[in-house]
Each structure stands twice: as C-alpha cells, then as structure tokens.
Backbone:
C-alpha cells in the first residue's frame, strides 16, 4: 500500500485538467493588445521576403491591402508602420516629405481601411544616408538639432493620418519636442507611444537588413541604452512621461523581462513590449531546424512578456498569436 502523505497543500490539484488550468491562469491576454509591424517600400507590385525574417515581407503600397485584409480577418487592428524610402540624404528629408513613403501609405491605408489603427515609427535611420537616428555634426549625432527634425516627421505623419506616433530614436527631449509640435498644430488628441526604454541590442540585426538602416559607421550606443542598466530604464520612462508620453515601450522583450516588470510597477501608463526582429529570426531558424516547436515557443515568449507586466505586445507573430488566443492555447 502506498504511503499516505500528510499534505494539506497540493499545487498539482489545480493543474488536473485543462479547464481548471485555464480557470486559474494568472496572466490574461487578448488580441486587442497585439500590434503588427509592417515594412512599406516604394514601387509597385512588391512583396519581397526579408531574408533574415522568413515569412515577413516588404510591401509596396498597392500590395498592402492584401496583408491588411489578412490581419483584419485574424482580428489584428493595429499596425506599426516602418518606411523604406527611395531617397536618402544627410538629414533624412524624405522622412518628413508630404509625399514620403509613410505619408502616402497612410493616406491610402486610411481610405481603404479606416478601422485599422496606424501607429508610425518616428526615426531617421531608415532615411539618412549615414544610417544614424539623427542629424550628424561630424561623427556625432547632434541631439538638439535632431529634435526639430523628429518633431517635423511626427507632425507630417499625424497630418497624413497616423493615429499614434511612436518615436524610436532615443534622443533626449524628443517626446517633449514632438508633444509641443503636435499640440501647436491642433493634434493634441494624437497619443505618443515612446520607445522610452530601448537598449542598444544585437537583436535588431534582421530589422536593419529589412529596413536597410544599419549605421554606415560606428554604432547606436551613444543614444540607445546599455543593457547592463535597469535603474536607467526608470529614469528614461519617467522622463518621457513627464514630457508627455502616453504609453511606454520596453524593447527588446526577450532578455528584458526584469525591465518590463520594474517599469510596469513604476509607471501609471500602459507598458508595451516589442518582441524584435532577432527574436523572430531565432524562433524561425530553430523551428526550421526542428529544434523547437514554433507555436509553443511563440506562446511561451508572448506570455512571458505579459506576465512580466506588458499590456501591449508588438510582434511579427501577431497573426499567429491572435489564432492561438482564439484557440485558447494562451490568454
Ligand atoms: C529604428 C528602429 C529599429 C527598430 C525599431 N525601430 C532599429 C534600430 O534601432 O536599430 C528595431 C525593430 C526590430 O528589430 O524588430 N530606430
């Protein structure tokens, strides 16, 4: 006869079957919190796969509706738009050109998909010939001069129909500069989601291939954060809120759950986590090699970010996650 153990608490009792496991889930998520990043490029009929991001494409504006249709069907109603311009110059002027790629895309998109919520990435690295996220003075990025440009880009996006502005450049004071610019142009209703806590990360590698935005010299360490630091994340987040940020983003997501957690405890605004290109590429590569189960890993990664404290999740796997949430696999 088996020995009868004297135990009052048995944690396994609540793991007995899937109905019960779902009942006691501590982390709840919903596809309304998912945001899908989209790369938009000039030209016609373009739908080109990004080599390092299998399953992700650069779309020309005319091909965008097919993708958006698919997203809408899956229940994704928020996109984060990245532009790949045809022309680059020293000061990234195509970024604030009324006929720039994002501005054109916004106008066409808003006409065809009025229900799709369009967040635009505001940065200069895709638009500058040197690939840095600001205006150069010699080999240094001139912070204060860059602010004028970022504000102009944000204004031009909002005027073209952007629903929300997401600055990712990491210059000091840019949230304030953008907020003032929007407010003085009757755009005080447009929220800002700040890439407030953005680390200088090797996980952005595939994105730079996708957007052609790798710096021509040096790196981004004088503006993006050093990943040894966590207290500094609080400083960045709180500063951006003081300057008017409505949502604070932590980026990347994987490897930064402690930061997501602490930021979400410290602030009283929603916290977004961006699961970046390198996270996507790693999952894809390992799954393709047969080393992991792709769907299971996607679910576990996403849940980790929410469990850490994110309430918005920006991911190239948005489509898949919406399905997994619908199926009750997670959420
Ligand atoms: C632009 C920007 C980057 C990403 C989002 N906005 C690249 C970078 O900072 O080098 C990365 C997104 C990703 O890797 O998925 N500054």
Residues:
């Amino acid at each position: 006869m088996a020995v009868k153990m004297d135990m009052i608490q048995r944690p396994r009792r609540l793991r007995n079957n899937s109905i019960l496991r779902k009942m006691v889930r501590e982390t709840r998520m919903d596809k309304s919190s998912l945001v899908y990043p989209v790369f938009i490029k000039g030209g016609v009929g373009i739908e080109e796969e990004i080599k390092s991001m299998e399953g992700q494409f650069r779309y020309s504006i005319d091909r965008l509706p097919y993708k958006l249709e698919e997203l809408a069907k899956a229940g994704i109603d928020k996109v984060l738009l990245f532009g790949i311009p045809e022309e680059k110059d020293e000061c990234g002027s195509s970024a604030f050109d009324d006929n720039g790629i994002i501005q054109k895309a916004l106008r066409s998109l808003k006409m065809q998909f009025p229900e799709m919520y369009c967040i635009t990435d505001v940065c200069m690295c895709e638009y500058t010939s040197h690939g840095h996220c600001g205006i150069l003075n010699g080999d240094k990025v001139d912070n204060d001069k860059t602010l004028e440009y970022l504000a102009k880009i944000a204004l031009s996006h909002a005027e073209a129909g952007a629903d929300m502005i997401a600055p990712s450049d990491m210059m000091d004071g840019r949230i304030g500069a953008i907020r003032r610019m929007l407010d003085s142009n009757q755009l005080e209703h447009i929220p800002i989601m700040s890439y407030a806590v953005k680390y200088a990360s090797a996980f952005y590698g595939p994105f730079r291939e996708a957007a052609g935005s790798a710096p021509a010299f040096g790196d981004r360490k004088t503006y993006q954060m050093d990943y040894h630091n966590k207290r500094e994340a609080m400083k960045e987040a709180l500063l951006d809120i003081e300057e008017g940020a409505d949502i604070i983003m932590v980026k990347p997501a994987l490897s930064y759950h402690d930061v997501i957690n602490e930021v979400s405890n410290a602030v009283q605004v929603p916290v977004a986590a961006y699961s970046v290109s390198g996270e996507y590429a790693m999952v894809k590569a390992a799954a393709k090699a047969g080393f992991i189960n792709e769907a299971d890993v996607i679910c576990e990664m996403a849940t980790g970010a929410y469990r850490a404290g994110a309430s918005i999740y920006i991911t190239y796997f948005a489509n898949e996650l919406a399905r997994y949430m619908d199926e009750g696999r997670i959420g």
